[in-house]
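Hello Y.,

Per our agreement to keep a running log of every chain we model this quarter, I'm adding this entry. I've kept the format consistent with earlier entries: sequence first, then predicted structure.
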Amino acid sequence: MNKAELRRIMKETLAKQPSLERERKSKLIVGRLVSLGEYSKAKTILTYVSMDEEVSTRELIPRAISDGKCVVVPAVSHDEKTMTLHEIKSPEELGPGYRGINEPKNRGTCFECERIDLAIVPGLAFDKRGNRLGRGKGMFDKLFAAAGCIRIALAFDFQVVGEVPVEAYDVPVHFVVSENRILKVGR
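Predicted structure for the entry above:
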């Protein structure tokens, strides 16, 4: 199966998941994430701000802030080809941005990706080798190429597939956390 076909299938499957089920599973996934030593040790965390069909980060962001983490979120550049990173102190600092996804309202100074200890990443599909299928723009891959941090994907169990097609520029994750398991892929 090629990337385009897998993206289409996963987008359809994600859209069909009832919102109450998505929220229930998201709480389990975030609970598994915060139990990891990698989360406990991290001082600076980059996390995505979830779209409706993704694993929700709505509870993760305030939790990480209350845990004393420096929380950094992405904002899509005006040319829609790259992301910039910005520290937030509260979820109230977020507002609609690129494609309606919440981003920092005040972008201010960009945060250096080299300072990130742990990146919480979204995706459409993942495999047991840590390969990740994103939405096709490569923005997270470009970001990860510059950062040497631990990368953890949050996923619903059905998003973990036998094999994700990869290109040379695709950057894998180190862990995939779902509602049923934590996969450490050992990279």
